[in-house]
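Late entry, evening session. Most of the bench is empty. Finally got around to the prediction I had been postponing all week. Sequence below, unchanged from the version circulated by S.P.
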Amino acid sequence: MFRHSSKLQYPVKVDKPDPQFAMLLQQAIGGVEGEIRVAMQYFFQAMGARGDDRIRDLLMSTATEELSHIEMLGHAVALNLEGAPLSYQEESAKDPVINAILGGMNPRHLLSSGLSAMPVNANGVPFDMSHVYATGNIGADMMCNVAAEAGGRVLASRLYNWTDDKGMKDFLSFLIARDTYHQQQWLAIIEELGGMEEQLPIPNSTPDDHEAKEHSYYYLNTLLDKQAPEGRWSQGPSLDGRSEYSMKQEPEPLGQEPSLGKAREGARAQKEQM
């Protein structure tokens, strides 16, 4: 069951409407870094969260909060579209060049949505759910969630730098703050489950005899003209505490040539292939 308040989670105000910024805000709604993505990702992860019910509750509550962020962003888009040109004549009367590009606004905000938000990114491409990751593995899902919140915070920070509107900066500072918490919320779940040493490698339930462990802990250098970059990833104890990292500087291929031989009759290949 879901419940809804008639009020926004945080105040959304625009001092000076900017249709171009409305188009950019669409990325935070329907982009791969946007709120539709994380809302649906957490929702579907929650529906497949087996084990500790606290994690399911966290996922569902956070998914619901992300719906609130979509609502706020949608309101921000609509406010920024106030005063946008309503007709070809209105815009072309100002400047034929500006008319050609509609001042940077997305024409579909007029043609398709009546000067309101849409479930699309900044290019007008609908969000198709292909970037929603819900594996049923809590370790894998939390890693995906940290990356999603990191990408969202990068986007919100860039939008903050783009605008000079005080109302929009205040609103975006709230989204940046919530992304700060959500990144750490998902990392805190990993810590609650024993930290990286217990959770890695994911899945940590794969039997040892299913893995060629002699290949599990070395960095493979494929640079032909440089030495391998050295760092924490190439030396010292592994993060899961099971081995030591090493490096193969000039690795030799271990496999065979991938020759497929002749084509089969009836495959409609060229005669020279048979």
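Two things to note before I forget:
The chain has a mean pLDDT of 90.
Residues 53-80 form the longest helix (28 residues).
Will write this up properly tomorrow.
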